[in-house]
Each structure stands twice: as structure tokens, then as C-alpha cells.
Specification:
Helix content: 55-70%
Strand content: under 5%
Number of strands: 2
Strand order of the largest sheet: 1-2
Shape: globular
Mean pLDDT: 92
Structural class: mainly alpha
Radius of gyration: 17 Å
């Protein structure tokens, strides 16, 4: 691994994210949503583990690689469909990221490690996989939760918050409590943690 391999891989990942047709407004400018998401993932990784290695940094940046190409509604809109969609996405995103790493000059071992992290293999036993899960949960809480909250009933939201909290480490919990949220969102998190 060399800095040039890392830079080449990050550039290729960001270039793929830049094709996301969905846009968000960031400081008055349109930005492709997945590019915004991946930058936010990298920002939270800095808070969780500023000394993270390159493979984890790449997996964090590529976690939702080209996700928009497989919309949620391409699978049944039920729990089984959701799990099938997520399983397929993890496999696909891992394969795409592995190939980018190989094309950027990484060894097969390192490229496959990036893919394994994206698939969240050995969650709870692998510290880097746990860090990736923490980061994904933090980005959900910071960037997606308040919008998600609007489309679901309170019981479902509380259940999802309980599951999210259960996936996180103690460090993840600490960082989650530092996120600026509306009073309503804070109240829901409190209900999830005490209920």
C-alpha cells in the first residue's frame, strides 16, 4: 500500500459516488447524495478512530458504493425484501470496492479485506468491522434519522433505534450522544434507551 494507491482508490470511489443522480443541498450547492454520505462517513471515522488504517478508511468511504443503482423498491417492500436487498447490496458494494482497490494497486489480501469490512464480516469480534458499524449508525442518526422519523410511526422508530443502539460500541454510544438533534428526536432516543 502506498499513499498513491490510497489516493487513487479514494478518487475512484468518489468518482463513482459523484454519479448519484440524487442531490442534497450542502452550503447552498447541490452535491450527489452518496458523495455527501461517504464524506460524512469519513468525518465520523476521524472521530471514532483517527488512526484507522487504509483498508478501513477505504471501506468506510465505499460502504454505499453505487447503491442508488439498486433501489429499495426493486425488492419486495416487506421485511424479507428489505433483508434480501441489504444482503445483495453488501455483496455488490464489496465486489465493486475490491475491484477498485485492485485497480488502484492494492494487494489481493488488502482489497479483499476492504470487501470483508463492507460486508461487515465478524461484527462484534472484529474491531474494524465494529468501527464501520459505529460510523454507519452515527451517520444514520446525524444525517438521516430526522427525515426517517417523519415517515414511520413511533413504535417502529423506537424499535429501530433500539436495534441501532445495540449494534454500536460504547465509543459509538458516546459519540451518538454528542450529535445535535431536535428535541423530538432526543425524546425518541430516550424512549428507546429506557423502554
Amino acid at each position: 500500500m502506498s499513499p498513491s494507491s490510497f489516493e487513487a482508490a479514494i478518487h475512484a470511489i468518489d468518482e463513482a459516488h459523484a454519479h448519484d443522480p440524487r442531490k442534497v443541498q450542502i452550503r447552498g450547492e447541490d452535491e450527489p447524495y452518496e458523495l455527501h454520505y461517504s464524506k460524512k462517513m469519513s468525518d465520523y471515522l476521524e472521530k471514532c478512530d483517527p488512526n484507522a488504517g487504509e483498508t478501513l478508511r477505504l471501506a468506510i468511504r465505499a460502504q454505499h458504493l453505487r447503491r442508488w443503482e439498486v433501489p429499495r423498491d426493486s425488492y419486495a417492500m416487506n421485511k424479507t425484501g428489505y433483508h434480501l436487498w441489504r444482503t445483495y447490496l453488501k455483496k455488490r458494494q464489496a465486489e465493486l470496492a475490491t475491484q477498485i482497490c485492485l485497480d488502484s494497486g492494492y494487494s489481493e489480501e488488502d482489497a479483499l479485506r476492504v470487501g470483508a469490512l463492507i460486508k461487515k464480516e465478524n461484527l462484534k469480534q472484529d474491531a474494524e468491522t465494529q468501527t464501520l458499524e459505529d460510523v454507519a449508525c452515527l451517520v444514520f442518526l446525524d444525517d438521516q434519522f430526522e427525515e426517517f422519523e417523519k415517515g414511520h410511526d413511533e413504535a417502529k422508530i423506537i424499535n429501530i433505534l433500539k436495534k441501532t443502539w445495540g449494534k454500536m460500541s460504547e465509543r459509538g454510544h458516546e459519540l451518538a450522544m454528542e450529535i445535535s438533534m431536535s428535541e423530538g428526536a432526543r425524546e425518541l432516543i430516550s424512549k428507546a434507551l429506557t423502554g
